[in-house]
Amino acid sequence: MKSPKKTGKKNPFGKFIKEKPDRKTRRKKLQGKPTKKKTAQSNSSDSKNPDHQKIRTPNYNSQRLKKLEKRAIPKDTAEKGIRLNRFVANSGICSRREADELIFTGKIQVNDKVCQKPSYRVQLKDEVKYQNKILRREKFVYVLLNKPKDHITTTNDPQGRKTVMNLVRQACDERVFPVGRLDRNTTGVLLLTNDGDLAKKLAHPSSQVTKEYQAELDKPITEEDAEKIQAGLELEDGLIQPDDFFFFGDGRIVGLKLHSGKNRIVRRIFEHLGYEVLKLDRTGFAGLTKKTVLRGKWRYLTEKEVIRLKYMKK
Fold this sequence. Notes:
Pseudouridine synthase
């Protein structure tokens, strides 16, 4: 397949063919580019050095963000209070499921009395304790990781495999968790946070969150197959149509943008047409990119990025 040159004319897919710089050039550019203070980045060597001091997490304290937090709480929740199991989980000591176990076993006290009802509504005046320590909602943390290969997107793996949590354990003391999933061998942008409401919003299909991918195929894609992808493919679980599709050079490297959150959707698109995806990299998620973040490293979101995510309409 002969690819038209970038001379002002578009290829059959409606997009310009893009020239991809070689890996060494990209690496030199990335390493030589200074990181802004607002997007402080940790060194991935912290996973090798357990004594590495944690970087101070940012405080998102603008009046605009505080108004967003207040607006995110439904009126009925503010009046009736928050469920005890959710309150305990939000304090950062455990997950929601583990919070239920602590409550059922009588290890949680409300106003110096044991409470074994996960559905109990905690009011502002209530004092919740665990092991004689008062529990308070921990501050929200937002971490963007450039995920490398061979790491599982989970908080814990029974088989002892490497997880993304090993890469961000020095980022904060709060219990953050991944928003969505990336396959073990898929690299790229992954957001981790302890903001459950935002995570739920971004993961819900109605939010139509944009995801951008770059894939390397085992053979050049043909014009016919590229047009099929652009027009939409009928897979076993329904129709899938990317918002954008293009390729680099001879057609082995392709890029696409889509809103679907279906499992292994990018790999299944190309498998359906007889291609094998050798490498898959997520270059963007909900407007966030891995720019200035090397593979295996992370940075905190800026306050501006957090506000934009919270303002994102469903």
